[in-house]
Specification:
Keywords: Amino-acid biosynthesis, Arginine biosynthesis, ATP-binding, Ligase, Nucleotide-binding, Urea cycle. By secondary structure, the chain is an alpha/beta fold. It has one domain: 3-Layer(aba) Sandwich (Rossmann fold), CATH 3.40.50.620. It contains 9 helices and 7 strands, in the order ααβαβαβαββαβαβαα.
Length: about 220
């Protein structure tokens, strides 16, 4: 029996192989490109993978300022975290709703166990943890988005990391019609927030209740 991990992985590869030739993009008039940046002006609901930390708290407020109704989503994969405090924080920042989803059982049975069975290791040394949790988290994020009739998902993964790929390819393999808003790949966001100090300053200006000192970060 094929595991969901394998299905998502192969769907992601198929999505990549079907992608248009990037070299053709400059020849197409820019007004015809269906980019997320151009769609930001139209209001809609976005399900944000939210942790309550600096990045996703700032992104939550930024999405609201861009005209979105934000549903903050937290996945409980078994980690120790004060989810109620995160719920209060998300609502205080203006989230329309905070959804806390328990996915620890499916994470263990459908992601961790197949990885253990296949002796999956990173660099033949490290057990997989975060890299397995992301597809599980993203799958539930897609379910919430479809349940709410939304069109967008978002997350706070930095543009140089692998988590953006894990989130977005999972999303697109399960629901190609849902669009991913990746702030750290959008010039209007990363040109504004070039370093942690910029995020900290934004947090202080917007009254985001998080520790905003270099030592705490």
């Amino acid at each position: 029996m094929t595991s969901p991990c394998s299905t998502i992985y192969h769907c992601c590869l198929d999505s990549l192989s079907d992608s248009p030739d990037q070299g053709d993009i400059p020849q197409i008039p820019s007004r015809k490109l269906p980019t997320i940046a151009n769609e930001m002006s139209s209001k809609g609901s976005v399900v944000l993978a939210y942790s309550g930390g600096l990045d996703t708290s700032c992104i939550l407020v930024w999405l609201k300022e861009e005209g979105y109704d934000v549903i903050a989503y937290l996945a409980n994969v078994g980690q120790k975290e004060d989810f109620e405090e995160a719920r209060k924080k998300g609502l205080k920042l203006g989230a329309k709703k905070v959804s806390i989803e328990g996915v620890s059982t499916e994470f263990a049975e459908e992601f961790i166990w197949p990885a253990v069975q296949s002796s999956a290791l990173y660099e033949d040394r490290f057990l997989l943890g975060t890299s397995l949790a992301r597809p599980c988290t993203a799958r539930k994020q897609v379910e919430i988005t479809q349940r709410k009739g939304g069109k967008y998902v978002s997350q706070g993964a930095i543009r140089k990391g692998n988590d953006q790929v894990r989130f977005e390819l999972t999303c697109y393999s399960l629901a190609p019609q849902i669009k991913a808003i990746a702030p750290w790949r959008m010039p209007e966001f990363y040109n504004r927030f070039k370093c942690r100090n910029d995020l900290m300053e934004y947090a202080m200006q917007r009254g985001i209740p998080i520790p905003v000192t270099p030592k705490s970060l």
